[in-house]
Description:
There is one protein chain. The protein is an alpha+beta fold. The chain has 6 helices and 16 strands. It has a 16-stranded mixed sheet that branches. A hairpin with a 4-residue loop joins strand 13 and strand 14.
Amino acid sequence: MHHQLKLTCGLSLAALLAACGGGSGAVQPPSTALTADQIRQYSAHSVFAGLELPVPSTLLTMAVLSYAQDPDEGSLECDSGTATGEYIDVDESGTVSAGDKVNFTFNQCEASGDSEFSPTGDAMDFKFDGKLHAVITEYDLPMLARAAATPAHFMANVSKASKAAPISAHVGVKLQYEQLQIMEDEKLDGTMRTRLSITVPDLDVLARQAAPDDSPSIVIAHSQESGEELKVSYSEAGKNYALTISEFRSEDNLSCNPDASCDDDSDDDSDDDAVQHRFTTLQFTNKGSDYALGSSFEYRMRLAEPLVPFSSGTVLTETSGETITTTFSTVNQQPMVAIKSTGGAAWSGDLDKYTDD
């Protein structure tokens, strides 16, 4: 069988920056107090980078697990271009296990998909070219036959399996990007780790939206160990930029939207609101050159309160001179954003103004 690369949203930095206030002049390094618009730019850049950065790793982790379970075909299906895979059964056990390896080689492989994996809900096409090396670091999938194409399908599979017994499953993959092009002018190089954890004590967990104090049914975590980095390079307006991400940690708790069904018995995956995202951990350091933030910037982003994009939560963005606090809330079903900085500047507005260029 072919392994369909059904991918989504991802890390389009040019588009991301356009949605984060870039293009109207770079933010200068914070040697003096930042203005209201500058703190908006730092805030939006850090929030969207944190939410979007893990998406390619999540999707490629799903592809790695799916391919490892059925590598006989030897290739991955692209909308155009080609992709080939190699599965290495390191312990020669005849089954997928921790330590096994998967290598992908992409040749202008175009792949499109929906937005379920993206916490921001934005869909985008990918164009892969280059190599990806993966090591399965953890593999404990009782009663689950295959990794599903989308979170809603995955949760539906979990729901069906849990009719027989409670489920606790964990899988982990270390991804090593080797100058892998993911968009026309964007590349990833370096390391990101993904861990998928599922705990389903009963069917009711998937039948309702989890309350904040409930144990999440599915957690997608990303991390980097000491010394690991992920370099992101891209071009914009004829210039080249490079960012370096380190100390990345995220935990995305997925639950079913009560107004949309995860019990998907059909192949219809058009309901992008079926899965809700709630981040209990999100932190990283970002430095380098950037179209919006200038030729030399550095900040650290972390959560002060859990983040449900973009309806609730509090984010801290720390520069060398200021700490920027961003609070998301919902007023009359409209996402609102309030930003303040220790440098004295403040900004507030709706989500459209927050992402306005």
